[in-house]
Amino acid sequence: MQIKVPKPSDPQRVLQSQTSAREAWRMFEFIAEFVTATEHLQAIHPAVAIFGSARTTPTHPYYVLAEQVARRLSDAGFSVISGGGPGIMEAANKGAFAGPSPSVGLNIELPHEQGANAYQDVSTTFKHFFARKVMFVKLSAAFVMMPGGFGTLDELTEVLTLVQTAKIRKVPVILVHSGFWGGLVEWMRGTLAEQGMINPGDLDLIQVIDDPAKVVEAIFDHYQTRGFTPSPSEREAELAL
Questions:
Q1: Structural domain boundaries of the chain?
Q2: Of the four listed, 61, 145, 201, 234, which is most buried by Cβ atoms within 10 Å?
Q3: If one looks up domain 18-238 in CATH, what number appears?
Q4: Which positions of the chain have pLDDT values less than 50?
C-alpha cells in the first residue's frame, strides 16, 4: 500500500511559507530571551532554586517551611530563586525578601494561572518554558525541592538527569519533608534501582532533609572543598544544555 500525499494548492503553499517564516523568526525570540535574562541575572550568584506547589496557602505547613528555608538561605548569603508565582514560590520569595540576599523570580507568561508575587527584588518574565528552565539550571548552585505536583517532579527529574548525564556539574538536590518525599525515594530504591533502571549510586544525588538549618549546612558541606563558581570545563559542558 502506498500513501499518496496530495500536492498543496497555491493558498496552502502561501500558508506553509508564512508558517515557516514565523518559526524561523521565533529563533530570534529565543535568543533575545536568553540575552535579556543573562544580563539581568548575572549578579545574583551564588543562588539556590526552590521549587514546590503553587497551590499551598500562606497558612499551610509547607508554605511556612519553605519560607523558613528561604530566610535561612538568604541569611547565609544565597540569592533565592523561585518561579515567581503563588504558593511555595511566594513563600520562597517572601522568606528571602525578608533577608539580606536577593529574592529572585523567574516568572512565566501563562494564559490564566500565574501572576507574579510581591516579594521579588529581582524579577524577569519568560515567554518560553524551556528558556526559563535553562536559566534555572545555569543560575543555581543547589536545588531545594519542597512538596509539589507535576511541575515540581518535572524539575526534580530534569535536574537529576542533567547531573547523571554530566550535562551539568554535581549540585546538591535536597528534598525537604521526608513525610512527603519518602515514598518516592523508596520507590526509586526498590523499583528503579532494583530493576536496573538507574544505578544504585544515582540515589546518592538526592538528600532528604526536614530541618531548614540542615538544608543550608548540606549546601555548604557540598561546596566545602571547592567554590560556588563552575570550573571552565563545567561551564563548557553547560553550553550544551
A1: 18-238
A2: 145
A3: 3.40.50.450
A4: 14
